[in-house]
UniProtKB/TrEMBL annotation:
Membrane topology: Single-pass type I membrane protein; Single-pass membrane protein
Protein name in UniProt: UDP-glucuronosyltransferase
Keyword DNA-binding recorded: no
GO molecular function terms noted in the UniProt entry: glucuronosyltransferase activity
Signal peptide: 1-20
Amino acid sequence: MLPSVIFCSVLCIATTITRAANILVFMPLPIKSHVRGFQPLFQELSNRGHNVTVVSSFPLDHPVANYTDIGPFIDKTRARNVMDLVRMNFITSVQLKWRIGIQLSEMVMSHRNMKQFVQSNSNSYDLVMVETFGQEYAVAMGHKFNAPVINLAPAMIWTSISKWLHVPSTFSYIPDACTQSTSDMGFVERLKNTITGLMQSYVENYLYLPKTKEVMNTYLKYKGWESRPPLEHMLNNVSLTLVNSHNAIGISRPYLPGIIEVGGMHIKDPKPLPRNLQTFLDAARQGVIFFSFGTLVNLNDLPKEKLKIFISVLGRLKQKIIIKWTPDDSNIKLPQNIMTGSWFPQRDILAHPNVILFITHGGLHSLEETVCNAKPVVGVPFFAEQNFNMKIVEEKGYGKLVNFFEITEESFGNAIEEVLSNVMFKEKAIIQSQVYKDQPMKPLDRAVYWVEYVIRHGGAGHLKSDSIGLNDFQYFLFDILFILFLYIGLISWSCYFIYAKIMFKNV
Ligand SMILES: *[C@@H]1O[C@H](CO)[C@@H](O)[C@H](O)[C@H]1NC(C)=O
Ligand SMILES: *[C@@H]1O[C@H](CO)[C@@H](O)[C@H](O)[C@H]1NC(C)=O
Ligand SMILES: *[C@@H]1O[C@H](CO)[C@@H](O)[C@H](O)[C@H]1NC(C)=O
């Protein structure tokens, strides 16, 4: 008994110690929130002694030891007016994803720094982490370095990703962000969701995948690329997928053992606030409303009449307001209760007990922070999956969605009034917060554990779905159904035939 206990403990300790590894992160597309969402993981891995090389368009602001940035791959920051991106329907937003993926990929992959990195043979890596949103070819880095691949998903995985892993994405209740529904879908919504799902499952393979392969075959001609397996096989062969989501913020759905939810990795323990903010927040007897539309939406880009709606509604409230915004027009007279600034420590502000409401664009990271701090929200979504996120918030009951295109002083004011006056919103926020916080491990620790797990095992093929070898006819049992129907048909026909014979004889 005793020796086996000792043996077991030694074994347990041995299997949890991981040698320092050379890790490559390859997510070159210039989509900031996708990279920022996983950067805390890369930093933590470097802290733990791994040598992390990050190929991305967003280097760290301050370099840290054991962490090498390669990039960026954009020559000038292309300011994009967010108003170009809004107003999408469920079909055009699937096509938009394909188009953005190919355009941005051509841009970053043809950059001279990227060519240099791809051609270089001076480094070797034990593990490759890639993001596959619009950059499926990135998985070829696993082939170049002969290393296992971890996939980083910036939000709850959608059909374009889950199909390669054989994660069920049942269209009847797992909503796609493009359809902007929740898991509670009526007939029309299920129809839309099915169309979006089928586009990603099948149409994509003809309209989009060939273009991705072209990018891969044009720009990823490293030494030995001729022996590369087909893109589909490499995508099937990913060891593990880390997903930036959590069911307290998203929906409850089936995953496989190799799909790990790590949403909220960026949330650290609250830090003390700067003096002026602390005073402002402490002094607000009636409470504080925090207003931020994230990094991409600049309030100055919004139509002036919409901006006026926000300011005049907020100016009438008795609460104090903090707005992340630098007015570009110095003539604007702001009401007394409003404080503005170009940047605020959002997570730390939300942690302050006097903050009673968060007005947000519904970005995933903002919602993770608000849920963690149990603050109800009023959401004004703009693009990407923000509308979808806010619909889920409404379903879970800790906030209200206001449509930006139809916003009026009345609709915006009423939403704020309702969320502040009805305690149900706060109660639901507290419930979500408890659900989110009650986890066996913090999301960042979980992510580190699983990355090191893949390093320890030199890949995690055993976590993949056992169905990978099946084609769709076998997977959905179409072949079996066909035979069954044939069989039933034959029997029915024989019965009818015999019956007819007997009847005929009697006549
Ligand atoms: C960098 O890695 C080494 C081991 O490779 C480790 O001893 C050191 O603590 C790491 N440095 C930092 C700042 O994380
Ligand atoms: C760490 O990674 C960098 C960049 O890939 C590389 O230049 C360096 O040699 C690596 N260090 C070690 C100790 O492997
Ligand atoms: C699958 O990944 C393993 C390493 O995890 C590698 O040895 C193998 O060659 C890969 N196969 C394909 C088809 O990519």
